[in-house]
Amino acid sequence: MKNIITEGDLGIVIGEAESGSDCLSSILAVHPDIVLIDLLMPELDGIEVIEQLRIKGFQGQFIMISQIVNKEMVGEAYEKGVEFFIHKPINRIEVRSILKRITDQIQLKNSLRVIKESLDHSESAKTRQQSVKEIVLSILNDMGIIGESGSDDIILMIEILIYESDGVIQLPPLKSLYESMAAKTGNHNMSGKAIEQRIRRTILTAVNNLAAMGAIDYTNPVFEYYAPRYFDFQVVRDQMISIQEGQNESKKVKVNIKKFLQALYHDTIEKYNDK
């Protein structure tokens, strides 16, 4: 695990411990952003360690490592604040995917904090306008694709649909949306093909992230909601099988851009209108 983190430039390992009781003081002393913790450890198990750290005010994120698959244990761990599970034997692709996702969550929280502080000092009309971006960011974060090259394109597209399309129900042709994006940014030379490629790669990353999540725990509420609603579920299922079989490279799959954007638009406008 340490080699995967170090070689993949996924973060800095700042401490290790042999038992549950040994790790408490060191975690509270250095306050890491993420704690990777085994379920079964001497003296205190992973869930007991998490309970004690939360009681003492630790605010970091937890990823649990376990070779045990038990719905009751998984449910209890989520209740105690575990963000994700990594199953033994360790899979390099799974570790990279999960660490990237949880890092994106941390970055999103920081971004949302900055946005909230900005909104608190802006007039109410502007607050309303900013909320669409915040909603889309939250949804993209659930799928682990904040920071992907096409995420900004997706946000801009949803803003155009909600602010300037007068409550459309069905999305217009993608080509016209790409043209609207070019006009909005003032870059009339912006290539529709380049936009589509960025969005396609971003959606493919979401497929792979959800497949990794479903391969670990198909009862995860994020997986259960997004996998069938935003994607052709068989595509996600094929990727899950690929991960479960330990294949090092994900299969090349086709993604339905319009289905993804349609679902995202409906979810966003529903939350926007509820504000």
TrEMBL record:
Modified sites of kind 4-aspartylphosphate: 38
Keyword list, A-Z: Phosphoprotein
Keyword Magnesium included in the entry's annotation: no
Superkingdom as given in the UniProt entry: Bacteria
InterPro entries associated with the record: CheY-like_superfamily (IPR011006), Sig_transdc_resp-reg_receiver (IPR001789), ST_Response_Regulator (IPR052048), YcbB (IPR013972)
Protein name: Transcriptional regulatory protein GlnL
Pfam family, one: Response_reg
Span of domain Response regulatory: 1-103
